[in-house]
Amino acid sequence: MDRSETDTERASASLLRQIPAVDELLGRASLRALEGRVGRRLVVDATRKVLQGLRGRISSGTLSGVSIETLEKEIIAATEAAAEFSLRPVVNATGVILHTNLGRAPLAQEAIDHLAETATRYSNLEYDLDRGERGQRDTHTDRLFAQLLGAEQTLVVNNNAAAVFLALNTLAEGGEVIVSRGELIEIGGSFRIPDICAKSGAQLREAGTTNRTRIADYAAAINERTRVLMRVHPSNFRIVGFTERPALEELVELGHKHRLPVLEDLGSGCLEDLAPRGIPDEPSVAPSLRAGADVVRLQSDPRLADDPYDA
Q1: Digit-coded pLDDT (tens) for 84-101
Q2: Taking the model in full, what pTM does it have?
Q3: Same domain for 60 and 203?
Q4: CB distance 105 to 304 below 8 Å
Q5: Are residue 154 and residue 279 in the same domain, yes or no?
Q6: pLDDT digits (tens, 9 = 90+) for 7-36
Q7: How many separate domains does the chain show?
């Protein structure tokens, strides 16, 4: 080791000894005031991260001095950054109107006003005002979706993958669910139908082939362990050419014959028919319910409804 390397190490050791303790920094007036605004934990975490970064710069030889005033400014900046809200408005310049990563559709002002009115005070979220006793929170969505779609009952969860999991876990745990090979898709967020089936406790039984599945293929796959017949939307891909897929009505008829529920995963699942607006290929929910599907799962956006009340 030559003399210059030794001098560098000595300089680094000297600077490291100048680093103030966390408690010393937290005792300074500016950081005490900051702690009063955002809480001690955020300030302590930010202080430790700033000091860790300082030690790294000293060790790499990129810092020639330690300034407490500079440390204060860095800690304040780091704390305020950690205290900021993570959600913030952005400009959607993607050309995609309903962008999942950008919050899908903006809420209508009427919905925001009603949300502010109810969420800032006590409400009848889980209380039956007519009977004067505890109620069920699902009654609010049941009423709205009954009006929109004619659905008998509604369960609202975080996303469609959660809906698939809960439906299969409830109806097919320990048994089999029959799905066409052409519908074993991967949906948004890397959720794969076979994986969701496995997690739910249901065993997947494939029917038909990738491009052609007939109602006879479903019938041949039914056995004493069958619990559900499931139909899945094609997601963001298409199989074209020599293809075949039974109508939902055929699957419902087969399910009723064997006393098996039919689950349809519609994916986006529009609440109204968008064909008159020039979007002909998006499936809507009401036709699936009219066809007799027992459970219809969708990840829809009621903010697209024309009526602000429905939004």
Answers
A1: 988 899 999 988 887 878
A2: 0.70
A3: no
A4: yes
A5: yes
A6: 777 878 888 888 889 999 999 999 999 999
A7: 2
